[in-house]
Amino acid sequence: MRTTDHTLDLTLTGKLSATSRQTGLTGVLKSVWRLLRNRKAIGSLSDLDDHQLLDMGLCREEVHEALTSSFFDEPGRYLTQASRNRTNTFYRNARLD
Q1: Under 8 Å between Cβ of 55 and 31
Q2: Distance, CA of 9 to CA of 1 (rounded, Å)
Q3: Average pLDDT, rounded, for the chain
Q4: How far apart are CA 42 and CA 36, in angstroms?
Q5: What pLDDT was estimated at residue 84?
Q6: pLDDT value at position 25?
Q7: CA angle 88, 89, 95 (to 5 degrees)
Q8: What one-character DSSP code corresponds to residue 14?
Q9: Which of 4, 84, 12, 76 is nearest to 44 (CA)?
Q10: Confidence tier at 4 by pLDDT (50, 70, 90)
Q11: Which of these, 53, 43, 42, lies nearest to 86 by C-alpha position?
Q12: How deeply is 56 buried, as exposed, middle or buried, from its count of CB atoms within 10 A (0-12, 13-18, 19+)?
């Protein structure tokens, strides 16, 4: 039986090049822009009436909770999960009837 030694040599100097700093900053700015854009889009859901929200599997309280969540939490993920939970509950109850 043979054993192969695998090693990984990383030299961390603590210094970042200008391009890697710029790339990191660009990524952060894109993430913040995406969060703001998504929050604005979810804010427009408040203009819909309760029946339209229910067609999407949401209720007004869930939209409000998504918008009042922490800034860095993705509110779209919360609404997607809430809609899936409502759908699953609906179909589970339909099978029991």
Answers
A1: no
A2: 26
A3: 82
A4: 10
A5: 92
A6: 87
A7: 90
A8: S
A9: 76
A10: low
A11: 53
A12: middle
Q: Is 57 left (phi over 0), alpha (psi -120 to 50) or beta?
A: left
- Distance between terminal CA atoms of the chain? 62
Q: Which residue has the tokens 């909770």?
A: 65
Tokens of 4: 């192969």
How confident is residue 63, by pLDDT bands cut at 50, 70 and 90? very high
Listing DSSP states for 16-72 in one string gives --HHHHHHHHHHHHHHHHHHHHHHHHHHGGGGS-HHHHHHTT--HHHHHHHHTS-TT
Rounded mean pLDDT, 45-58? 90
Percentage of residues of the chain with pLDDT beyond 70: 81
Tell me which amino acid residue 45 is: L
Its sign, for the CA torsion 9, 12, 18, 22, is positive
